[in-house]
Specification:
The protein is 42% helix and 18% strand. By secondary structure, it is an alpha/beta fold. The protein folds into 2 domains: 238 residues, Carbamate kinase (3-Layer(aba) Sandwich), CATH 3.40.1160.10; 150 residues, VC0802-like (2-Layer Sandwich). It has an 8-stranded mixed beta sheet, sandwiched between helices.
Length: 485
């Protein structure tokens, strides 16, 4: 990479936005840009919306994709049929976005080569693992990464080809390790791939998945593309990292709170971004945010289809001028996992055993409370996994009483919500709305206030807190600027 001055940006486009190909060309990728304005940008692209679900498993419903079918195949061919269906979906998408027959055929050839290469690999692996010396379980993470890479390679190839057809000098940067004989760290792979790129005259389109010695999916699972974004930004010394979504980062979900009452968050810090991640509303994966924060690189979250709007800037050094709530969000379906043992008082080890069981069964911890003989974890995960945790702990602590109930958690988040009046105001707002919280978490580090309610009260709680803590408060000067934009 020849340019050494931090004048470029590194920008990631999510899968849902990627699926709106023509709109992206008209906004983020090209828009009104001409000449030099098209360059000094690096794009990290996700697979088209739904493609990774088909390749792995559905992110929300858990419906098995190619990976899940292969991992549980027991000699069946269902995974092969599912892979063929993915190929057909790729070809159908190619047909929609390429009017030129030659370009479409080129895109189809690329997709076919990748899909059939993976198919051959999985067939060979199945044959190898039919011998007792080789166990499939030892190779499943590699299989998962191999399958995930198909989606990003498909979208990166198509995007670079479309841009070339439009007269833009775009280059696909393939970090998937396809037929690559070496094994590199992520930073090394990025450096090698961009070494000959002139950012002033070329537009790199990088695969969101990167094959590297760190095995990204083992740590980040499907958050790998944001890790790739952050490391590309750090390695290349970017001026700014940008994530393009199909919505703004706003004070609440406009599908719950009336859209005319919701405000775009103009600026915040990485502390707030971490709290949002804990609520499942990721501005950026927390591990990816860590790299940007440590390098002092600001992150901007933008609506891909409103390119003139400045979006939300996230920086580590942004402190609130005054205590205020910036966003109200939450999770409707949360499990309150209560572990009670009268013999717990003064005895160590309970916490460790509970945490190990939760980690073993991959259950996501949102919050936790405890007293002398009770530890309650608020969990997000499948009922099956949580029941396995319960079984493990019941066997280890036969005298313990374990209960499980479904609740909702609503969180008011801000860089500084340290005034006692904010807690008092929140309780008054809920009382006026006729909502009786099951519990409240208000910690010493004043960045979030969590309210536990019955699931039936979730939307009413979110609306009431937004109205009382944000909506009825006069907008800040920055919010006025965002509204004007």
């Amino acid at each position: 990479m020849t340019n050494q001055i931090a004048i470029h940006t590194v920008e990631k486009i999510g899968g849902t936005s990627m699926a709106r190909t023509q709109e992206l060309l008209d906004t983020v990728l090209i828009g009104d840009r001409q000449g030099a304005d098209l360059y000094n940008r690096i794009f990290v692209v996700s697979a088209y919306g739904g493609m990774t679900d088909d390749l792995l498993e559905h992110k929300k419903s858990g419906k098995p994709g190619v990976y899940a079918l292969f991992a549980n195949a027991e000699g069946g061919w269902a995974w092969g049929d599912a892979l063929s269906a993915v190929a057909d979906k790729m070809f159908a998408h190619n047909a929609r976005i390429f009017a030129d027959d030659g370009a479409r055929q080129s895109a189809d050839r690329f997709a076919r080569e990748r899909v059939e290469g993976v198919r051959s690999c999985l067939i060979d692996l199945s044959r190898l693992c039919s011998f007792g010396h080789f166990q499939l379980e030892q190779h499943l993470l590699t299989v998962r990464e191999l399958l995930a890479s198909l989606g990003e390679a498909h979208s990166a190839f198509n995007t670079s080809l479309l841009l070339n057809l439009k007269g833009v000098r775009a280059r696909m940067i393939d970090l998937t390790g396809w037929r690559d004989g070496g094994q590199f760290t992520l930073d090394e792979a990025i450096q090698r791939s961009l070494a000959e790129v002139d950012l002033a005259t070329e537009l790199p389109i990088i695969t969101g998945y990167a094959q590297c010695s760190e095995a990204l999916m083992g740590t980040y699972d499907r958050g790998y593309s944001e890790v790739t974004l952050s490391r590309v930004a750090v390695v290349t010394g970017a001026r700014e990292a940008i994530i393009h979504k199909e919505f703004h980062l706003s004070t609440a979900d406009p599908n719950i709170v009336p859209a005319d009452a919701v405000r775009v968050i103009g600026e915040t810090n990485y502390d707030v971004a971490d709290q949002l991640s804990n609520m499942g509303m990721e501005a950026i994966h927390p591990r990816a945010a860590k790299s940007l924060r440590q390098a002092g690189i600001p992150l901007r979250v933008k609506n891909a289809f409103e390119p003139e709007h400045p979006g939300t800037v996230i920086r580590s050094d942004l402190v609130a001028c005054a205590p205020q709530v910036e966003i109200v969000t939450g999770l409707k379906n949360v499990f309150a996992f209560e572990f009670h043992d009268q013999d717990m008082v003064g005895v160590k080890g309970y916490d460790t055993e509970i945490l190990e069981a939760l980690k073993r069964h991959k259950v996501w911890i949102i919050a936790k409370t405890s007293n002398a003989n009770t530890i309650t974890h608020f969990l997000k995960g499948s009922m099956k996994a949580i029941k396995r945790v319960e079984a493990d702990l019941s066997a280890g602590f036969p005298s313990a009483e374990i209960s499980l109930r479904k609740v909702s958690l609503v969180s008011a988040i801000g860089r500084n919500i340290g005034q006692a009046s904010i807690l008092m105001q929140a309780m008054q707002v809920l009382a006026d709305a006729g909502i009786a919280p099951l519990g409240v978490h208000d910690l010493i580090r004043k960045v979030d206030l969590q309210v536990i309610v019955e699931p039936d009260d979730f939307e009413a709680t979110l609306k009431a807190l937004h109205r009382g803590l944000i909506q009825d408060r006069a907008p800040t000067p920055q919010q006025r600027l965002n509204a004007a934009a």
